[in-house]
Amino acid sequence: MASDDRDGAADVDVSFVVPARNEVDYLGATLASLVALDTDYAFEVIVVDGGSCDETVAIARDYDVTVLQEGGSSIAAARNLGADRASGVWLAFVDADTRVRPTYLTELLGFVEANGLAAASSYCRISGPLRAKLMEATINHVFSRLEYPILPGFNCFVHRRAFAESGGFPVVANEDTAFSRGLSRRLPTAYYPSVLVESSGRRIAEYGLTGTLWHYARLDVKRLRAVE
Q: What residue spans of 24-172 are helical by DSSP H?
């Protein structure tokens, strides 16, 4: 990447931002997958702790990543804080229960640059009960084909300039939907059509598919009301 594209930042191609709050059961696997990336690109990892009362922060420090304290006001605030402190030309938002494949960075960065995109996501796998596959299929084959694609917060790759110009994640319900749909209305975004991440289906396991869909439906009603 050209040096003037970094706006004076250090030589970091991509900054991973991982919001985490009481994620002792998942964060280690997420960070291990990031450490294991097979890439020549320079990257950094920033964990934004939202006031954890378990060993989340200790796990993050075991992986020698940057740890920031946000306080737990919202996941949007955590993501925005991480982005503000990031040095990379690109920002990769992944959740604390999301593992990336070794080729994630090389393939996704090559994809956005080859296609002149401001942001992207990729197909995913959702682990857990069989009913989690419906959520997986919705993300891979519905979200990706919308006129204004929804880039889920657990797998959102965006140029730092586009992120800044968009104002970051709004502090509303379904903040990732609000952010990515607003961005997609102004700038080109798309999905990489191969699986590059695996995320936990723990919400579906806990609440069931109907309960999970109802949860997100209620959040989206709140999101729409907030932007009216």
A: 27-35, 56-62, 75-85, 104-115, 132-141, 160-166
User: What mean pLDDT is predicted for residues 139-162?
Assistant: 95
**What's CA 20's distance to the chain center, in Å?**
12
Numbers of helices and strands, H then E, in the chain: 8, 8
Domains of the chain: 3-227 (3.90.550.10)
**Strands 189-199 and 98-100, sheet pairing:** antiparallel
Q: How far is CA 61 from the centre of its chain?
A: 20
Query: What's the rounded Cα separation, in Å, for the pair 126 and 98?
Result: 9
Give 173's pLDDT tier (boundaries 50, 70, 90). Answer: confident
Give the per-residue pLDDT at 21.
96
User: Over the chain, what is the mean pLDDT?
Assistant: 87
Residues in a beta bridge with 125? 198
Burial class of residue 47 in the structure, from the number of CB atoms within 10 Å of its CB (0-12 exposed, 13-18 middle, 19+ buried): buried
Q: What is the DSSP letter of 148?
A: S
The region, left, alpha or beta by phi > 0 then psi within -120 to 50, assigned to residue 51 is left
CA distances from 35 to 62, 155, 217 (A): 12, 17, 35
The structure tokens listed for 206 are 């806990």
Say how far apart CA 153 and CA 131 lie, in whole Å: 21
For CA atoms 50, 55, 56, 58, the dihedral sign is: positive
Give the C-alpha separation, 56 to 218, whole Å: 29
